[in-house]
Amino acid sequence: MEKTIKQDEIVNFLKKYGFVFPCSEIYNGLANAWDYGPLGVLLKNNLKSLWWKYFITSKANMVGLDSAIFLNPNVWKASGHIESFSDPLIDCKHCKKRFRADKIINDQVKNAKINENSSLESLQKIIKENHIKCPNCQHEDWTEIRKFNLMFQTNQSIVKDKENTLYLRPETAQGIFINFNNIQRTSSLKLPFGVGQIGKSFRNEITPGNFIFRTREFEQMEIEFFCFPQQAAEFFNFFLNEINFFLLKKLKLNKEKIKTYEHPKNDLSHYAKRTIDFQYRFPHGWSELWGLSNRTDYDLLNHQKNSGKNLMYLDQKNGKKIIPYVIEPSVGVERLLYAIICDTFTYQKIKDNDYREVLCLSYELCPYKVAVLPLSVSLINDAKEIYQQILNANISATFATSGSIGKRYRKQDAIGTYYCLTIDFETANDQCVTVRHRDTMRQKRIKISEINNFLSKKMINE
Ligand code: ATP
After folding, report:
1. Is CATH 3.30.930.10 correct for 7-71+152-342?
2. Residue 368: is its pLDDT beyond 80?
3. Could you give the CA distance from residue 306 to residue 176 in angstroms, rounded to a whole number?
């Protein structure tokens, strides 16, 4: 029987084992910012590499890009982010706290008919008519609602003026659009083709929180898939199936905790014609995990208009020039990581009053595939040789000597290590070690000379 896990338990667990640390902890932290520790960075890298392999390198018409974080500010003018990438904010005059107007309406008014495109006037009217009170001090004393742009600004060079304003990118996508010609020219790709990118994005979120679910600095894994306009519906469905397959079959997430939500037509981002979100049931409730949008020709068309450069695609079959449509699957690395942890972290009952923490990660995601455990101090040197043999094969492994073997197994189970290899007093005689499987806890003996092969095969078969 497994217990339902709360957000706090997950955060404490991840801090305890070194997956995450509160950012700037020795200076009392920085709210809603997290650092990734030795295990967190391994897990995060494994996730990014799994996504990259599945969506980019194993597909014939996909390539990658790593564009800059700072782009020419005109990019954000053309993309509509300077004008439209904003939240409606309202301040309580009494306690001086600031809120997202749409959020307090949704929290306090049942069936409020508002969406991303609701005007500031209509939001203000709902707040007034429903006598919405400040969630902090319960007073009804509001300022006017105003738009707050979510892009972080900074300045290049030492002069702080409008001319020198730069924005930290709020999505990686624009780096791909502005390189459309370069990529096409250098890789000779023909439509349909896609460009993937993994990188940091920044949003000055008004209500960050729920651990790593919503932070101001995060990583995105995005694909901009370019196709003929008449193929957009087909590739939208293609990626709908691909994301579903990746979540359920590659990451093996629980089907019951995943559902899709289609945005109604009046609740689409300024660039989108159709959007479906994959939602996950996080400890704080159902929330967006992965977005899939048909961005049409919006971005390329606007960059063509604003840059004055031709971004058309020449269809060599009929000599016609078109602006391709774009299908965009976009997911946050940390948000996906959080869903994986929520899904795989369990307290498993072994016998009465005996529970073990287990992170049932798939083999490819495990920070360590294997832990090498000498049963006694006198076996450390022999065990180290085996450990080095595994590291030489580029297999992620750890080595642990302190504590009873039972305690060491428990710790490795908790951090998701797939196998434990125990070196005991028989090892020198039979040249074998005991392999213990994390999930079944079953053990068998294998030859030292077969360890690397055994581990590599597991990787291939995953
Ligand atoms: P939300 O509605 O949760 O703010 P969004 O619709 O603004 O998300 P998109 O712009 O579609 O998000 O971004 C694509 C993906 O990037 C999201 O599905 C999510 O996984 C991730 N993401 C977006 N904002 C954040 C954030 N502040 N922190 C962590 N991940 C984020």
Report:
1. yes
2. yes
3. 16
Contact call for residues 390 and 397 (beta carbons, < 8 A): yes
Query: What is the enclosing helix (H) or strand (E) of 219?
Result: strand 217-227
Read off the pLDDT of each residue in 435-460 and give the average, rounded to a whole number: 91
User: What is the residue type of 315?
Assistant: D
Tell me what the mean pLDDT of segment 273-283 comes to: 97
| β-pairing verdict for 146-149 and 86-91 | antiparallel
Distance CA 88, CA 277 (A): 22
Give the C-alpha separation, 100 to 205, whole Å: 10
Q: CATH assignment of 368-461, given 3.30.420.10, 3.40.50.800, 3.40.190.10, 3.20.20.450? A: 3.40.50.800
Residue 33: both structure tokens together: 């910012």
CATH 3.30.40.230 maps onto the chain at: 86-149
The confidence score (pLDDT) of residue 461 equals 57
Delimiting residues of CATH 3.40.50.800 domain(s) in the chain: 368-461
Mean pLDDT of 215-233: 98
Tokens found for residue 114 = 């508002």
Across the range 115-135, mean pLDDT stands at 92
**pLDDT score at 48:** 98
Q: How many angstroms does the Cα of residue 16 sit away from the middle of ligand 1?
A: 27
Name the amino acid, one letter, at 412: Q
Name which residue sits closest to atom 12 of ligand 1, judged by CA: 291
Does domain 86-149 fall under CATH 3.30.70.660? My reply is: no
CA distance 242 to 258: 14
Q: Which atom of ligand 1 is nearest to the CA of 222?
A: 14
Mutational pocket test of ligand 1: of 32, 34, 220, 278, the residue with most ligand atoms within 8 Å of the beta carbon: 220
Ligand 1 mean position, distance from CA 359 (Å)? 25
Is a pLDDT exceeding 50 seen at residue 1? no
| Stated pTM of the model | 0.93
- How far separated are the first and last CA of the chain, in Å rounded? 27
Phi, psi for 175 (deg, rounded to 5): -60, -30
The answer to whether 261 and 251 are in contact (CB under 8 A) is no
